[in-house]
């Protein structure tokens, strides 16, 4: 396990702390684009416990295929991917107005954070991250971008 990854156990403990909050809906889908298996496993556990449908892609290509074939409500995106960079992928996601994006990355230099927001990111979370804080950010963005029922307008 590398130096900045939270152990899987941290996700379980935080998930139990958040238990029964149930903010998510199985109708809301979150796509994690990340190549670190520990983070994938931890966030899969945490997000499914929070009642979100979870999808994961380890590469830019896998992510593009999923985005073309599935409805996604939020994207959690790493900048450093094995076959490209998350900044380019964010640009495409935002050009096509697919979903809100939260960068989840070890890239902590100001120029990277600024670039992420300039590309339209809705939030930027630096690794290592607090699972509880990430869930609060996810919930806030999901509320902000909640699909409105067209019959209520």
Key features of this structure:
153 residues; single chain; five-stranded parallel beta sheet; disordered N terminus; two-stranded antiparallel ribbon; globular; disordered C terminus; alpha/beta; 18% strand
Structure, described:
This protein is of the alpha/beta class and 153 residues long. The chain has 6 helices and 7 strands. The strands form 2 sheets. It has a 5-stranded parallel sheet, with helices on both faces. Strands 4-5 form a two-stranded antiparallel ribbon. The model is unreliable at 1-9 and 149-153 (pLDDT under 50).
Describe how the helices and strands are arranged:
Elements: H1 8-18, E1 29-33, H2 37-49, E2 53-57, H3 60-69, E3 74-77, E4 80-81, E5 84-85, H4 86-95, E6 101-105, H5 110-118, E7 123-126, H6 131-144
Parallel strand pairs: 1-2, 1-3, 3-6, 6-7
Antiparallel strand pairs: 4-5
Helix pairs in contact: 1-2
């Amino acid at each position: 396990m590398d130096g900045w990854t939270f152990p899987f156990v941290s996700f379980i403990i935080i998930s139990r702390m958040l238990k029964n909050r149930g903010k998510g809906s199985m109708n809301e889908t979150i796509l994690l684009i990340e190549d670190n298996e520990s983070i994938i496993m931890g966030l899969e556990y945490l997000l499914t416990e929070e009642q979100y449908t979870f999808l994961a892609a380890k590469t830019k290509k896998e992510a593009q295929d999923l985005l073309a074939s599935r409805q996604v409500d939020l994207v959690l995106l790493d900048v450093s991917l094995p076959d490209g960079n998350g900044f380019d992928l964010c640009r495409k996601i935002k050009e096509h107005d697919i979903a809100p994006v939260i960068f989840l990355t070890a890239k902590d230099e100001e120029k990277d954070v600024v670039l992420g927001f300039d590309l339209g990111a809705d939030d930027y979370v630096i690794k290592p991250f607090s699972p509880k804080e990430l869930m609060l950010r996810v919930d806030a963005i999901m509320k902000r971008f909640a699909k409105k029922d067209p019959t209520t307008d």
